[in-house]
Amino acid sequence: MTAQEAIDLSPNAPTEAAERLRSSQIPDDKEMLRAAVELTRDIAAARPEIYWPDMLASTLVGYGALAGAILVSNPWAALALGLLASLALYRALLFIHELTHIHRDALPGFRFVWNLIVGIPMLIPSFMYEGVHTIHHTRTRYGTIEDPEYLPLALMKPWSLPVFALTAILLPPALLIRSAVLTPLGVVIPPLRKLVWGRASALAINPRFDRRAPEGKFAQMVFWQELGCSVWAIAVLAASYAYGWRPLVIALCVMSLTAFLNQVRTLVAHLWENDGEAMTVTAQYLDSVNVPPPAKFSELWAPVGLRYHALHHLLPSMPYHSLAEAHRRLARQFGAGTTYAKANYPGLMPLLERLARSTMRAH
Q1: Angle CA(298)–CA(301)–CA(305) in degrees, nearest 5?
Q2: Other CB atoms closer than 10 Å to residue 357's CB: what's the count?
Q3: How does pLDDT run across 126-184, given as a tens digit for each residue?
Q4: Is 272 left (phi over 0), alpha (psi -120 to 50) or beta?
């Protein structure tokens, strides 16, 4: 999405920031990279007995709480249920991240069912991340202008941070307009179809990212997911027109909170200190963030393994349910003061404060 175009993309970093950016050229810690693979071989397989119940339970709780928020008359009960719905659906939605990394044969039917009950109803089908997120993990593209999921936020103006976070609340109505209006119009207006695909079909934060047209089997998958989203979005708008707008407004509010939570998580997923140069794998790791125990509430704002985001950049295919154990093994192996320990942080607020201070120092 291109909602972040309001952010200043012409940072003018001073000497202090420039010194910090030299870390992008640090050599790889080969011992750490080798150990990350060797110490975790036995926990590298995705376990369906964990994936399926987790995703289905999160979805069920989310939709149940959303229905409760719509139906109850007590405003405080509706607020509490709306918050629960947002957190549960947030967890269910973030399985889209797992779909981009697990082997296509690892969990038969999981992608289809997730799209059917989560991706399409929430208007964020898996194609919006598949084929996009993998670029972020490409060795030569991470942190560069070609990375759809990277902005040098630490080097931008301080007001960029609240703009970045708050624009996320516009995502749900934008997705509704995209699926109900723009996608159908694109069928008869090819230039519009090309524009929507290139600029509004990816969960990207880099406003310069222009997505290539889908090809082969992926194009087939995109067609059916787009069709499902359009039919659902049009049906939702028609039902709201016929029976009242209150349920849709509440649902959009819940989803806006979910989008905001994810955007805040994104703010602390990396240090965002790279100015566009290609980075070594170790530099990418150190520009990323782990928030392991004893940090509180990290499982709420960074669910499905995303509190181990730096470790994920070392082991992109490691299933989310194995990341905590992988972290324990590597922490025991290397200990404090090592390269591995340098990507571990105590919590959300210290990371937000660090990012805010970085923007102030840069200007």
Answers
A1: 65
A2: 12
A3: 999 999 999 999 988 999 999 999 999 999 999 999 999 999 999 999 999 999 999 99
A4: left
**Treating both helix axes as pointing N-terminal to C-terminal, what angle do 246-267 and 48-71 enclose, rounded to 10 degrees?**
130
Domains of the chain: total: 1
Neighbours of 328 (CB within 10 A): 12
152's CB contacts (< 8 A; 6+ apart) are 11, 272, 273, 274, 275, 276
Please state the φ and ψ torsions of residue 269, each to the nearest 5 degrees.
-75, -30
Whether 326 contacts 311, CB under 8 Å:
yes
Contact 236, 255 (CB under 8 A): no
Tokens describing residue 9: 């993309």
Cα 94 versus chain centre, distance: 7
Cα→Cα distances 141→134, 164, 238, 283, 336, Å: 10, 22, 43, 13, 30
Q: Is the pLDDT of residue 64 over 70?
A: yes
First-to-last C-alpha distance (Å) of the chain: 27
Question: What crossing angle do the helices spanning 48-71 and 75-93 adopt, rounded to 10°?
Answer: 150
| pTM of structure | 0.91
Q: Is 24:143 a contact under the CB 8 Å cutoff?
A: yes
Q: How many Cβ atoms sit within 10 Å of the Cβ of residue 331?
A: 17
Structural domain for 340, as ranges? 3-362
Respond yes or no on whether the N-terminal peptide bond of residue 294 is cis (omega within 30° of 0): yes
Is the Cβ–Cβ distance between 331 and 341 less than 8 Å?
yes
